[in-house]
Structure formats: structure tokens, C-alpha cells
């Protein structure tokens, strides 16, 4: 079955998951949601791999879905990459796809190390390795399900998560995401290398006097703060003491591809 997998990634977790799934499916092609237009997608099976943001869909994923060929009968599947609470993210996706005449045939919850640095730094390496191993095992199982073309209900969290986190908190917070970049600031370590401008998926960072300035159209992917080679970017008051995180098998070149 000809398969295309589209991914969205900030710290490499979703890119790694998309790669692993592509390898397990053998002949899948990968494309970044940043770069690829899906309007003329001609695959029989289409996968979406993305991080969960505020217990729901990132805006970029919503935009991408809105450009999928409407009403086309394909086998759609999704991996929602998260740090332990997928909540109702895949149910959201199923609904917005249905509104476009598309059926999400299968949706999976994939737990990976947290990259949400405002709530804490990178987990110890051993803990990360454990999560990578568990995720790799689940991806193999998922590949089997996809390879057989199986359909089923999407995975979701307990009812309270779906109602409170994906329902209430997501809805209250969603419109505020672009302006959350007001919490970013840069310390004296910054050398003006401009790397942060190149990893930002939304072109939200400009250099002014060799210092990053955020433009109020943030996606909260956290790529800038996690990839800055000098750890010069901070968010709020606590991140100076936090270890940075990006997936160890993903490189900066991968992020810019
Ligand atoms: S990546 Fe870091 S060091 Fe480079 S310009 Fe941005 S903040 Fe400064
Ligand atoms: S400003 Fe930083 S967190 Fe916001 S979209 Fe760009 S890279 Fe992601």
C-alpha cells in the first residue's frame, strides 16, 4: 500500500516516531508539514504524526488537515505524540477530518519524553531510553495494524481528561498560544548565531541587534529554546536551571529539512 507520512516536530520526537513507523512500513515516504502541500496527495494510506499541544491539536496540524484532498477515500491514520496525557486529541482530529469528509481509520497515543520545559527540564537519560524503547515497541505494533489496514476507535485518555483538559483547558488556552512568546527572553550567552530563526516553523523570530525578537505568532513548539546551542533562550523564571531536550537521534539538519 503506497503510504505517505506527514510529520510536525519541534524537538524531534514526532520526526523520530514518523521515521520509525516509515521504516516498519517499509515503503512509506516522509514529508514535513512545514514544507509539503498535501492537496494533491496520491497515496492510498496517509499518516499524520504530531505532538499534542495543550491536550489537543496544534494549529499547524489543523491547517494541514484543512488542505487534505476533501472527500477522498484513503486509509488515514495518526500518531499523537505526548508526555503521558493524550486526552481527547485524536477525537478532535477525527471530528475535524469527518467534517471534511475524511475518515480517520486508526489513531494511536504514543508516549515520549516530555519536552515542555516551562514545566521542567529533560528527564535523566535512563528514563528517556526507557520511553524510547517502549515507544519503538509500540510503533512496531502500530505498523502491523496499519499494514493490515485495520480500523478501530482512536485511542484517548480517561473521560475527565477528555472533558477537562481537551475540552475546557484547550478551548480556553488555544487562542492565546501565538502570544505566549512574550514569556521568551534571551540571556547574555546569546552570540547572535541565528539558529533559533532557522528552526522556528512559523518564522516567528527575527534578529534585532543580533538578539532574537519574537513576533507574536508562536506555535509553542519549543524548538527555539530547546535547540539554542548556548542555552541562551529562557521562558519565564525557571528555565535557566533546566536541562534542554531534543531527541538524541534527530539533528539540526533534520529539523531544517
Ligand atoms: S540560537 Fe541562541 S545563541 Fe543563537 S541567536 Fe538564537 S538565542 Fe542567540
Ligand atoms: S518561537 Fe519558538 S516556540 Fe514559538 S514557534 Fe518558533 S520555535 Fe516554536
- The total of beta strands comes to 9
Broad shape? globular
Approximate helicity band: 25-40%
Number of helices: 8
End-to-end distance:
25 Å
Low-pLDDT windows of residues = none
Could you provide a short overview of the structure?
33% of the residues lie in helices and 18% in strands. By secondary structure, it is of the alpha/beta class. Helix 1 packs parallel to helix 4.
Topology:
Blueprint: E1 3-7, H1 13-25, E2 29-32, E3 45-51, H2 59-66, E4 75-82, H3 89-99, E5 104-111, H4 125-147, H5 159-174, E6 184-186, H6 195-199, E7 205-208, E8 211-214, H7 223-227, E9 233-235, H8 252-256
Parallel strand pairs: 1-2, 1-3, 3-4, 4-5
Antiparallel strand pairs: 6-9, 7-8
Helix pairs in contact: 1-4
The protein binds iron/sulfur cluster (SF4) (2 copies).
The site of one iron/sulfur cluster has 16 residues, from helix 7.
Amino acid at each position: 500500500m503506497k503510504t505517505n507520512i506527514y510529520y510536525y516536530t519541534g524537538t524531534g520526537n514526532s520526526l523520530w516516531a514518523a521515521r520509525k513507523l516509515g521504516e516498519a512500513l517499509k515503503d512509506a515516504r516522509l514529508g514535513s508539514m512545514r514544507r509539503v502541500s498535501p492537496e494533491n496527495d496520491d497515496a492510498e494510506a496517509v499518516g499524520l504524526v504530531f505532538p499534542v499541544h495543550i491536550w489537543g491539536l496544534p494549529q499547524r496540524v489543523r491547517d494541514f488537515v484543512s488542505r487534505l484532498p476533501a472527500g477522498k477515500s484513503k486509509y488515514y491514520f495518526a500518531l499523537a505524540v505526548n508526555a503521558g496525557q493524550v486526552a481527547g486529541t485524536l477525537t478532535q482530529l477525527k471530528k475535524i477530518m469527518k467534517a471534511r469528509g475524511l475518515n480517520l481509520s486508526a489513531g494511536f497515543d504514543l508516549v515520549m519524553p516530555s519536552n515542555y520545559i516551562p514545566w521542567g527540564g529533560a528527564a535523566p537519560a535512563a528514563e528517556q531510553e526507557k520511553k524510547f524503547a517502549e515507544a519503538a515497541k509500540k510503533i512496531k505494533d502500530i505498523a502491523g495494524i496499519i499494514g493490515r489496514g485495520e480500523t478501530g476507535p482512536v485511542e484517548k485518555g480517561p473521560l475527565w481528561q477528555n472533558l477537562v483538559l481537551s475540552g475546557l483547558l484547550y478551548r480556553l488556552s488555544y487562542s492565546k498560544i501565538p502570544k505566549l512568546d512574550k514569556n521568551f527572553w534571551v540571556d547574555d550567552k546569546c552570540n547572535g548565531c541565528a539558529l533559533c530563526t532557522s528552526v522556528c516553523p512559523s518564522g516567528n523570530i527575527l534578529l534585532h541587534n543580533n538578539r532574537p525578537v519574537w513576533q507574536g505568532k508562536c506555535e509553542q513548539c519549543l524548538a527555539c529554546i530547546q535547540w539554542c546551542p548556548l542555552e541562551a533562550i529562557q521562558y519565564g523564571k525557571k528555565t535557566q536551571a533546566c536541562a534542554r531536550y531534543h531527541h538524541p537521534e534527530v539533528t539540526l539538519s533534520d529539523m531544517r529539512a
